[in-house]
Amino acid sequence: MSRLPLLTAETADAEQGELLTEVRRQLGRVPNLYATMANSPATLRGYLNFRDALTRGDLRARTRERLALLVAAENGCDYCVAAHTMRAGKLGLSDEEIQATRDAHADDPHTDAVLQLAAAVMRTRGDITDDALAAARAQGVTDAEIAETIGHVALNTLSNYFNHVARPELDFPPAPAAEPKETAMQSNWRQAHKVQLVSGYVITGRDGRPTDEVDDVLIRIEGGFLHIRLDPDGDAQVVSAPAVRLVTYRP
């Protein structure tokens, strides 16, 4: 049950009703997220204005939708994962592309770089390294797109956190469960140029000693954890996403 009232045309005041009418005009209905966010017209108006401004940026609609899905997955927002899974499908993304997006990957190098940048921003709370920016720029991500990526992280984190607090009933088709770990561990490993951990976190290096940085390894991101293989046939070491400071790939 929602922890904030689901406002309707009958229960909303004039300002709230105006905003709900605008949402219905844009989306064809009023999803429960918006019906609860309307309890604060200032919050809903700010959210809508921010969202609309970003639609006029340089990032394409499919990339914006993939960012929304990635951020929702990173923040563990089931409501927004469901909503953006449905929207991504309507924009033509395949089931495989949707799953890859939730793991911050895309076949297109530019889109992949944008998703990797967004994931790095979230996992470091914005304290990314020069190398992370350089990796994005190496794939053609412009300064405007870097700025917009941060904007999309902020916009979607707002809706994710709002849903965590308000807990509106899900009014979208539930998203498929994330790929089981057993399957993930058998496929979709990717060659990383460098993995750097946050200070205080270590894994075992090739020399058997603790280290916070390794080069030329295989990685797989799954369920908020980074799996690292120093060698193709070796055992995986696992660290939580907040422990990861940087992941770079060779151009």
Automatic annotation (TrEMBL):
InterPro entries: AhpD-like (IPR029032), AhpD_core (IPR004675), CMD-like (IPR003779). GO terms for molecular function: peroxiredoxin activity. Coiled coil: none annotated. It comes from the Bacteria. Residues 41-120 form the Carboxymuconolactone decarboxylase-like domain. This is Carboxymuconolactone decarboxylase family protein. The lineage of its organism: Bacteria, Bacillati, Actinomycetota, Actinomycetes, Mycobacteriales.
